[in-house]
Amino acid sequence: MPRFLAFVASIGLLTGPALAAAQARPMPASAPLPAARQFQPYRSQQGRFSVDFPPGTPQHAVKAIALQGGAASILHQTWVELNHSSVAYMVMYNDYPADYVDQAPEDVLASARSGAVDGKTVLSDRAITLNGVPGRAFTATDNDGWHYTVHQYLAGARLYQLIVVSEKNHPAADAEEFMRSFRIR
Question: How far apart are CA 86 and CA 6, in angstroms?
Answer without folding.
Answer: 14
